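Please, structure for the following, as tokens.
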Amino acid sequence: MEISDKLLCLFNADVEAEDDRFVVEVPRREVDTGAVEAGETYRVALISTEGEGTTEVEDTSEPSTAPDEPQPPVERGEIRYVEVEDLGKQGDGIARVERGYVIIVPGAEVGERVKIEITEVKSNFAVGEIIE
């Protein structure tokens, strides 16, 4: 799956019926960490749990106004300890660090604290390989 450099946050959510519309709830932690702001407009990509591995995402979340983007809080080759908070649709571990920045950790399980080496860095997410 290809993930856009414009990704602001990544989380699992259910689509719920509410009167004559459908709602996807954004976890409070995404607002608290500054990944998204209440009242702003965002582009949302929905990825099905069926047929995993066949969906490509080019544009995920994008604010209606482009703020000055801060630099990623990690660098390629950096060693870090992270705690896996969630699993992505492909089963990869998802950890968050400063400002809600997402690190994808293949092979990690929710609740694990793992030592990783950052192998890929994008503006809004990174990939880390477990080294311990």
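Confidence is low (pLDDT under 50) at residues 53-66. The longest strand covers residues 79-87.
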